[in-house]
């Protein structure tokens, strides 16, 4: 039996999401169509609204619906320190620990030669421009995810920043290898950021 084109298109679109294969997409579309059409409408309305109203903060590249994000405009934050993370959900995870009061920079990914993602494909240019324009920034915390890609991205940034004289520190151990920051519990993540260690400079 041939499926109606609209159903096939919905399944095809959903299956493009990470972690959702053809089978799950199929199940979700039929779940919504069979008895949860209001939910289907709600999902499409809210996603459409988010996609049209949310942009990247020109300072830190986090998602925001205001000109600058609330963290960048918060006068209470320590403006001399920037924590570099891979995703917006990492900002949320670190904020929940309550131990960090500096600013952030969201890369939206990590460098991955295997997946063909180079330094220009993540928001590094914005970070370096930001550092050039804000000489008061004295410390960078590298909070990339633990794992090959996250670590090589952190190393790449550390190497580029070394001549600048900015203190570069990295999250302390405690984050399980291969896991994303957003999945670490608040205590572990809080300790990791509090016990961050400075990255040693070659030759020093
Ligand atoms: Zn911001």
From TrEMBL:
Statement: the UniProt record of this protein carries the keyword Zinc-finger: yes
Matching Pfam families: RecR_C, RecR_HhH, RecR_ZnF, Toprim_4
Domain RecR protein, first and last residues per copy: 57-78
Keywords in alphabetical order: DNA damage, DNA recombination, DNA repair, Metal-binding, Zinc, Zinc-finger
UniProt zinc finger (C4-type) residues: 57-72
Signal peptide: none
The keyword Lyase appears for this protein: no
HAMAP family per record: RecR
Similarity section: Belongs to the RecR family.
Record's function text: May play a role in DNA repair. It seems to be involved in an RecBC-independent recombinational process of DNA repair. It may act with RecF and RecO.
Name listed for the protein in its UniProt record: Recombination protein RecR
Organism: Amygdalobacter indicium
Primary gene name: recR
């Amino acid at each position: 039996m041939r499926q109606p084109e609209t159903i096939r298109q919905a399944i095809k679109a959903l299956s493009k999401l990470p972690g959702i294969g053809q089978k799950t997409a199929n199940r979700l579309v039929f779940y919504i169509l069979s008895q949860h059409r209001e939910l289907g409408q709600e999902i499409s309305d809210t996603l459409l609204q988010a996609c049209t109203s949310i942009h990247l903060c020109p300072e830190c590249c986090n998602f925001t619906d205001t000109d600058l994000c609330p963290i960048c405009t918060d006068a209470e934050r320590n403006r001399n320190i920037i924590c570099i993370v891979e995703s917006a959900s990492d900002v949320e995870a670190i904020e929940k620990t309550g131990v960090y009061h500096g600013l952030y920079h969201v890369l939206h990914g990590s460098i991955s030669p295997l997946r063909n993602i180079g330094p220009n494909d993540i928001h590094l240019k914005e970070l370096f421009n930001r550092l050039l324009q804000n000489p008061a920034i004295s410390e960078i915390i590298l909070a990339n995810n633990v794992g090959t890609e996250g670590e090589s991205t952190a190393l790449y940034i550390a190497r580029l920043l070394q001549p600048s004289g900015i203190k570069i520190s990295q999250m302390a151990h405690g984050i399980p290898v291969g896991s994303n920051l957003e999945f670490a519990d608040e205590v572990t993540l809080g300790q990791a950021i509090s016990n961050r260690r400075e990255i040693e400079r070659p030759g020093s």
